[in-house]
Structures are given as C-alpha cells and as structure tokens.
Design goal:
The protein contains 9 helices and 7 strands. It is α/β, with parallel strands linked by helices and 231 residues long. The protein folds into 3 domains: 79 residues, Winged helix-like DNA-binding domain superfamily/Winged helix DNA-binding domain (Arc Repressor Mutant, subunit A); 64 residues, 3-Layer(aba) Sandwich (D-Maltodextrin-Binding Protein, domain 2), CATH 3.40.190.10; 62 residues, D-Maltodextrin-Binding Protein, domain 2 (3-Layer(aba) Sandwich). Strands 4-3-5 form a 3-stranded parallel β-sheet. Strands 1-2 form a two-stranded antiparallel ribbon. The longest helix is centred in the middle third of the chain and has 23 residues.
Length: 231
C-alpha cells in the first residue's frame, strides 16, 4: 500500500546488507555477531514485511533477486545515517589508542568491513590491528599488549575473561587436488602452522588418538602459504 509505514527493524537491514555483501549466511552471521539460524530468520522476517523475495539460496550460493538487488544501496544509506548519530551526539569526542589482535583468517575474511566502520565512526581513535596465532594473542592479552582480541580456542579451554562462542567452526581434513585419498601405508604428510597453533594441536591429537603415524613436511604461519603448498 503506497505510503504505508513498515517500521523496519534496523537489525533486519543490517543482516540483509551483510548477507548481500558476503553472499553467505554463515559469513554474514559472523559479521553481525549472530548465529546463522538467527540471520536466516531475520531475512525471512524482512521478506515478510516487504512482501517480496530478496534472496535465492542454494547449497552452493546465495544470489539476489531483482527486488533484493535494489535494496542494498538503500540499506547502506539508511544504516550509514543511523551509525553517524552517535558521532553527532558526542562519540566523536572519544580519542586514544586501541590495540586489537586477531587471527589472520578472521582479520582478512570477516573483519575488514567491521574495522572500517569502526574507524569511520571513531575518527579520533587510533586503531592498531595485529594478526597473530591464537596462543600468542592470549599471551599478549595477559601481558597487556592488546586491549581487545578475537581468539580461536577449544570451548573447554577458554582463558579467564574470554567471551565464549562468538563463532563456532567444524574442523575438517584438507588434501591437495592431486591426492584422491591419503595412503595408509606410511606416515601421513602434514602441512601445518608452526607451534603454537590450535589447529596443529587438534590435528596431532586426532592422529595420535587414531594411532596414525604422521610427519610434518611443511610449515607456514600464513594460511595463503599453506594453501599454496596443498595445491
């Protein structure tokens, strides 16, 4: 109905903008700090309020419908105006240094938009981001090297003061494209990050529990370096 006020919840627009940008409900959930089922329900609610389908979702990809493709610019403009309100009310007066630590994959895949928005809305805060292994991030927090850090850790071994379950991921084994199935004849060749690394520890624990011999053939502190070696 022309002129009808929908009273849209801005969290719905924020979740939609995240999904539209990431083309993934899982990555969008990480960006907005919610679970993937919660984001799915928010998108369904938004589509119900607008009375139209915004996204087409398959097992492989998420695409925008014609109506959905028209919404991101409007959502970004609306959210940008709302995000600028705190600065106008005094948040811009906040100043100082903020030392933030993050694992490499989070910093490169999930946090660029969030950090860019923070810098934009807090122009007098000097944000410094450090990419490190989780164990070293925890050590840095204990030593006062960071004000805030995102870590990846076994939920049963969280350090004191850590907020649990912001993100949960399922660990899987990955092999190079030329390896159809690892041989069971000799030790399994591993490509790992150097110690200390939570993924390295989990992989070795699993192999030792299964009685599977292994050897490390390549180490790299960079995910890109490890991925290139797997090819």
């Amino acid at each position: 109905m022309p002129g009808r006020r929908l009273g849209l919840d801005t969290t719905l627009l924020r979740s939609f903008a995240a999904v539209a940008g990431a083309r993934s409900f899982t990555r969008a959930a990480a960006l907005v700090g919610r679970t993937q089922p919660a984001v799915t329900l928010q998108i369904a609610r938004l589509e119900s309020l607008l009375g139209t389908k915004l996204l087409t979702r398959t097992s492989r990809e998420v695409t925008l419908t014609p109506a959905g493709a028209a919404l991101p610019p409007v959502a970004r403009e609306a959210l940008g105006l709302l995000d600028s309100v705190p600065a106008g009310l005094g948040a811009a007066a906040e100043a100082g240094d903020l030392r933030f630590g993050s694992p490499e994959d989070f910093a490169t895949l999930y946090l660029p938009d969030i950090l860019a928005r923070f810098v934009e809305t807090h122009p007098r805060v000097h944000l410094t981001t450090h990419c490190e292994l989780t164990v070293r991030l925890v050590e840095g927090m204990r030593e006062g090297a960071y004000d805030l850090a995102v870590i990846k850790q076994d939920p049963q071994a969280l350090p004191p003061g850590a907020r649990p379950l912001w993100w949960r991921e399922k660990l899987v084994w990955a092999a190079g494209s030329e390896v159809a199935r690892p041989s069971t004849a000799g030790p399994l060749s591993l490509v790992l990050s150097p110690e200390p690394c939570v993924y390295r520890s989990a992989a070795i624990r699993a192999l030792e529990a299964a009685g599977r011999p292994w050897r490390v053939v390549y180490t790299s502190p960079s995910l890109v370096g490890a991925a290139l070696h797997l090819k």
